[in-house]
Amino acid sequence: MLQKFHTFQVVAKCQSYTEAAKRLYCSQPTVTNHIQQLEDHYQMPLFMRQHGQLLMTKEGEILYEFIEQINHLLKKAESEMQRSFQKDQLPLYMSNYIAHYFFFHLYDQVNPMLASRLTIHSYCYDELKRQLLTHQARFALMPHYVADKELQEKTTFYPLFEDEFILVFSSEHPFSQRKKLYTRDLQQETVLFTQSEFLNEEMIETLSLQTVRQVRVSTFEMAKQFVAMNRGIAFLPRSAVYEEIQKGQLHTLASPSFQYKRKSGIQLMNDIILNDSERQLIDVLLSLFPENSAKLFIQFENV
């Protein structure tokens, strides 16, 4: 019936079956049939011909007004339904890295009722920061950089786990024949970095990489591909390269000269008041992430 009502409205506005058919992307007989079915249903004419024009009858005008009211009520119902749905949803913002490598390992351990309400939003660091500072996100699971003063001044950080970044290279690289490496060995190498300025600054400073040739790629995944093709070397999180090292696609070599760790956790805006659901979710994350991330890292210890 709603489709027929819509056809009726278009015909009334166009004052033409032919033009209505064009706007509705259907045949003219279909339009005529819809109007005929409405007239049969109400047992009265809804349109009339007058001086060559197709006009609504008085009854048609009455129907038109009520259809307008129906459309208004339907839009209002949709808005109320959407508001109700969003109220029950629990948005969780996180970095692409955490979403890819960690979150779904823990998802099944979250209370099913709570998990069913989660809507996951994953972004790069810069976009997550923007979402927080513009109050589109109230808290986020993301890396922590002390040097990012702007974010640190407006948020409180709750650590969840710590990533160790390790040097990786392909099996074809000369490093694969070495038993020990030093910082000076990297001076003639191409080192791959992501687009994260804060991460790059910390790694370059901590690992003394100021003089190496730097190439920027968008993600850890892309860096892994370049390294596997022997297009450079990279310092990547253990969790991101575990499978590739196990399969022999990438190699690593432990060295006291190359030690960089990065904390990740919850960045919570200081000027918000958490609702009960958000507080419950954060409590769950704080209880699950340290315990389970530790379990996840056990498998990486010998990499």
TrEMBL record:
UniProt entry keywords in alphabetical sequence: DNA-binding, Transcription, Transcription regulation
Alphabetized GO MF terms: DNA-binding transcription factor activity; transcription cis-regulatory region binding
HTH lysR-type domain sequence ranges: 1-57
InterPro entries: LysR_HTH_N, LysR_subst-bd, WH-like_DNA-bd_sf, WH_DNA-bd_sf
Entry superkingdom: Bacteria
Homology family: Belongs to the LysR transcriptional regulatory family.
PANTHER family: HTH-TYPE TRANSCRIPTIONAL REGULATOR, HTH-TYPE TRANSCRIPTIONAL REGULATOR GLTR
Protein name: LysR family transcriptional regulator
Organism taxonomic ancestry: Bacteria, Bacillati, Bacillota, Bacilli, Bacillales
